[in-house]
Amino acid sequence: MNRLPVVLATLLVACSAPPPEPAASRAPALPATIVDLTHAFDADTIYWPTEAGFQLEQVAHGMTEKGYFYAANRFCAAEHGGTHLDAPIHFFEGGHAADEIPIEQLVGLGVVVDVSEACARDRDYQIRIDDLTAWESQNGPLPDGAIVLLRTGWGERWNDREAYLGTALTGLEAVPELHFPGLHPDAARWLTQERTIKAIGLDTPSIDHGQSEIFESHVILFEAGIPAFENVAALGQLPPKDFVVAALPMKIRGGTGGPLRIVAWW
User: Fold this and answer.
1) pLDDT of residue 7
2) Three-state secondary structure call for residue 108
3) pLDDT, mean of residues 241-264
4) Phi and psi dihedrals of 191, rounded to 5?
5) What is the pLDDT of residue 222?
6) What angle do CA 239, 243, 248 make, to 5 degrees?
7) Mean pLDDT, the chain, as a whole number?
């Protein structure tokens, strides 16, 4: 049997077919908008009043004797300060440490619950179940596995330590003078029992409001394995929903928290 006609026909079909797409064109499209939700770390970064804050020490900066430029620093910082992670072990014995939180729990669909008007009227405001259900009445149910971000408006006060914390004092005497909004324990309990979320964050120094003495919202969330992100920046730049969050902390083995780089895109 002469197979030449079959071979020629096959070649003609192959030559007339469109060329395969270049690999670059098959790559996922980049998001139209990316927002950095992280405050920079420097000497002015706000830490809990009992902590020393962020310290950056220059090790080298300049031309070497061999003719090339070289720069290096070392830093010292508490785990909890600036934009940072609270790992569940922070308030729950046996909870995940910073390096044990599954990476899937730190990336997901985000929502912003804006309570800035209520917080402007009351700097000790505690975000309530009603605030969360009001969001749902306008936007639909919280997506399963959402990362919930609470916008109190405190992020706009970041450059004024006294306005942000409620006091210019430092050390133990400052703690009773802290005044900033947080999440009410009832709302924390509702989120853990009535909804399924991956993580929660807000633009204040603590998931509990400044006047809390027993940090009940921390305990409720962390017992349920839900990490928190504190001192989150730029929440006013996000839509209420339909965006993705990636919150990637320094992977400190056994850490109770750590510096966090958090971004959103859509």
Assistant:
1) 39
2) strand
3) 98
4) -65, -35
5) 98
6) 115
7) 93
Domain boundaries, the chain: 34-265
- At residue 209, the pLDDT reads 98
Beta strands in 21-160 (DSSP E): 34-36, 55-63, 69-76, 84-86, 107-114, 126-127, 146-151
- Provide the CA 175 distance to its chain's centre, in angstroms: 24
34-36/257-265 β-pairing: antiparallel
Q: Please state which CATH class domain 34-265 belongs to.
A: alpha beta
CA dist., res. 114 & res. 230, Å (int): 16
Residue 24 clears pLDDT 80, i.e. is over it: no
The H-or-E segment that residue 105 falls in is none
Average of pLDDT values for 236-247?
A: 98
Location of structure tokens 């306005």? 163
* φ, ψ for residue 118, nearest 5 deg: -65, -40
Let me know: does 234 contact 217? Beta carbons within 8 Å.
no
- Distance of alpha carbon 88 from alpha carbon 85, whole angstroms: 9
Contact 114, 243 (CB under 8 A): no
119 DSSP β-pair partners: none
